[in-house]
Structure formats: C-alpha cells, structure tokens
Amino acid sequence: MRILFITATRLGDAVLSTGLLAHLVRTYPDARFTIACGPVAAGLFQNLPGLERVLVMTKRTYDRHWLELWKACIGQTWDLTIDLRGSATTFFLRSRKRLIMRGGRRPGLRLNHLGQLLHLSPPPMPTVWLSEADKTLASQMIPTDGGPIIALGPTANWTGKIWPIDRYLPLWAELSRQIPSARPAIFYGPGEQERALALPVLHALPNAIDAGGHFSLTQVAAMLAQCRLFIGNDSGLMHLAAAAGTPTLGLFGPSRASEYAPSGRSTSWVVAPGPEGEAPIAGLSLERVTQVALTVLAETKS
Questions:
Q1: Other residues' Cβ atoms within 10 Å of the Cβ of residue 18
Q2: pLDDT digit string (tens) for 96-129?
C-alpha cells in the first residue's frame, strides 16, 4: 500500500499533522509513505516508520511547486492520497481514495480540523519519531543526573509573536529561586536571525545550555523530551516541545490560542490581554508567565 501525505510548509502546522500520520501508520502498518512538505519541516519525518521518500516543496512563482509535486508523483498509483493544503493536485493523480482538507483559516483548533478529515474525535495527538542516535545526542546535551533542565524558546518566525527578550532574565531569577538546582537550555532555530534573537538570553544566563542553531529537528525534539518544562513563544518549537511530551507553556499575543494552542501530554498557555489576534505580546506580564510556569512545575513534579 502506498500513501501520499501532503502536509504543511510551516513547522508548527507540520508538527500538528503528525498525529494524523501516526494514526495512518498504526492503521496501515505495512504501508509505504511519501511525505510532501516545505523545507523547514522536512527533517521532522526522517524516522517515520514505512517512509519511502520526502518530497521537499520549495515555493515557486506562479505556484509551480504544485506542478513539480505532480511530476514527482504522477508515475505512481496511490492507494490513498491526503492533502492538508487544500490543493487540486491529487485530482490529477491516480488515487484509489483521496482526502482533501479545505484550505483557509476557520475558527477552532487546527488539531480538531485535522482529526475531522478522518472522522477522529478526539483527534490524535502530535508525535515525533526519534532514532537511537537522536536520543544519544540528547542525553549528552541535556544531562539528567543533576537538577531539572528548563527549556526557553525566545524566538519566533514573526517579531509580533516574540515576548520581550529582557523579561527572560527576571523570569529565570524567580524560577531558579524556587528551584535552585534548575538549569536553563536555550532553544532556537537555524540562521543568523534566530541566533541574534537568542544571544541576549544566552549571554544573560551564563550557565545556560546552547541547544539551538545547528541540530536536526529530531535531535531538537529528543533534547526537548529531556527537559522538565518548555516556556516559549507560539512557534514551531513550541509545538515540537508539546509533541515530544515535554510540559509546555506557550506565550501568545497577536496569534490565536483558540486555533494554535500547544497540544500534547501536558500543555498550558497564557494570552496577552486584548482582542484575540490583535493583543500585543508585550502586554503579557512577567508576573503572569512566572505564576503559570511555577504552577506547571509544581503539577508535573515527578
């Protein structure tokens, strides 16, 4: 059985789709999967059971990336094609069954919309497939023989989502006062822009673990899985932390928690005051974030 799974360009949306993919793996354990996604998300699927190939869709002018995808898939007869991008591509492929998710934004959790495509309620939770090499690297980077490691994710792909960087130092001061043995790990994506955003926090917290920049997505997920808590902006990293099973606290300003709240084993979020989708994230107070973070730490204490 061969399945074509067309998922998101953005990392966060791709992570949310992994629950649906995991359901398909369980339902069709002998299936061979082809994943089509954007370049940022491609590494997420490298350990997927039954993976045949990943087709990286790089955006082209005049939507030529869809033509390229069609050319890569036209030679195959598919047993099932799933398109989470709402395109017409699968109508032009030989497919015994096709499921197409309606494009565009609509109210409600994105995760629920994904589940509805296969009539799954509740929807399957996101997951990450890790290799033994990923786990080995994580154990070297994130020690578990000392105090708890708390992950901080101060970056995002849009400046409007970024909680003011200068609040992480007083946040950490209070967390470490409550848990003196705790140590921070700073997570951020590849590229100079991401590192520039993370550097002030790395410099302000000299004992922090630098867990960003040059790791694969599955390595990052494995490192996050070793952390006691993730605190960070609404971002792909936030969704990856939740999928890895890390207790996750998402910080929301002008993005919508009603659509993109983190989904996982233990998740919380705080929202800046104001109209949803328009609230400046700077309005999210240090006191509020600290209070919820400490509550989550107390509730998840092993």
A1: 25
A2: 999 999 877 788 999 999 999 999 999 999 999 9
In CATH, what number is assigned to the domain containing residue 81?
Answer: 3.40.50.2000
Q: Where are the alpha helices (DSSP H) in 79-167?
A: 110-117, 132-141
Q: What's the predicted TM-score (pTM) here?
A: 0.96
CA–CA separation, 56 vs 54, rounded Å? 6
Question: Which helix (H) or strand (E) covers residue 58, if one does?
Answer: none
Residue 125 lies in a domain: no
> How do residues 193-209 score in pLDDT, each as one tens digit?
999 999 999 999 989 99
Domain enclosing residue 70, as ranges: 2-117
Q: What DSSP designation does 153 have?
A: E
Give mean pLDDT, residues 232-238. 97
The answer as to whether 167 is a domain residue is yes
Cα 270 from chain centre:
17
Alpha helices in 142-285 (DSSP H): 168-178, 192-204, 217-225, 236-243, 257-260
**C-beta neighbour count of 76 within 10 angstroms:** 16
Give the strand pairing for 32-37 and 51-56.
Answer: parallel
Q: What tens digit of pLDDT does each residue of 3-38 get?
A: 999 999 999 999 999 999 999 999 999 999 999 999
Residue 127 domain-assigned? no
Q: Rg of the chain's alpha carbons, rounded to an integer?
A: 20
Q: Taking a C-beta distance cutoff of 8 angstroms, is the pair 90, 70 a contact?
A: no
* Residue 302 pLDDT grade (very low, low, confident, very high; cuts 50, 70, 90): low
- The DSSP 8-state label assigned to residue 296 in this structure reads H
